[in-house]
Amino acid sequence: MRRFPRARAFELVAGGGANGGDGRIAARVLREAGREVVDSGDVIIDALFGTGFHGEPRAEAAAEIERINAAGVPVIAVDIPSGVDASTGEVPGAAVHATVTVTFHGRKVGHVVGPGLFHAGEVVVADIGLESRTRRTGL
């Protein structure tokens, strides 16, 4: 809502895993703030695949990714753009081109290594209360 304050309607594209759950939480927060979550919005929230995704998306998912990319509206990716391997940055098939990626705790390899970095857009790290390795080890 801060990034796109004029957006009143958001489209959620969510998978069945934890990433989809994060997307559904975002949708709930948006509704509670008076925004609509609809089939075609001013902004798309990409929560189809998360950090555990690797390989090439199946045909149905690839078609959904291509639809997101062709929508002509800003895209917010949850944790990593769908189709990007968070551990390597590889993009072996269709992948979302996000305007903004909101990731949790810290950046992933896929945000900073090509070709994934070219899909992530602006990366915003959301603090979820986990202690950093540096604080934990004293380094």
Sequence-ordered SSE layout with sheet pairings:
Blueprint lengths: L8 E6 L3 H15 L3 E3 L4 E5 L11 H12 L4 E4 L21 E5 L4 H4 L4 H4 L1 E5 L6 H5 L2
Parallel strand pairs: 1-2, 1-3, 3-4, 4-5, 5-6
Point out poorly predicted stretches.
Answer: none
User: Strand percentage, roughly?
Assistant: 15-25%
Average pLDDT taken over every residue = 90
Largest sheet: 6 strands, parallel
Task: Return the structural class.
Answer: alpha/beta
Estimate percent helicity. 25-40%
Give the overall shape, derived from the CA principal axes: globular
- The number of helical runs is 5
**Spatial order of the strands in the main sheet?**
2-1-3-4-5-6
Rounded to the nearest angstrom, the distance between the terminal CA atoms is 36 Å
Q: What is the succession of H and E elements?
A: EHEEHEEHHEH
Q: What Rg is obtained from the alpha carbons, in whole angstroms?
A: 15 Å
Tally of strands: 6
What labels describe this entry?
139 residues, alpha/beta, six-stranded parallel beta sheet, 5 helices, globular
Commentary on this structure:
There is one protein chain. With 139 residues, the protein is α/β, with parallel strands linked by helices. Helix content is 29%, strand content 20%. It contains five helices and six strands; from the N terminus they run βαββαββααβα. The protein has helices at 18-32, 59-70, 109-112, 117-120, 133-137; strands at 9-14, 36-38, 43-47, 75-78, 100-104, 122-126. It has a six-stranded parallel β-sheet, covered by helices on one side. The longest helix is centred in the N-terminal third of the chain and has 15 residues, at 18-32. It starts with 8 loop residues before the first strand and ends with a helix.
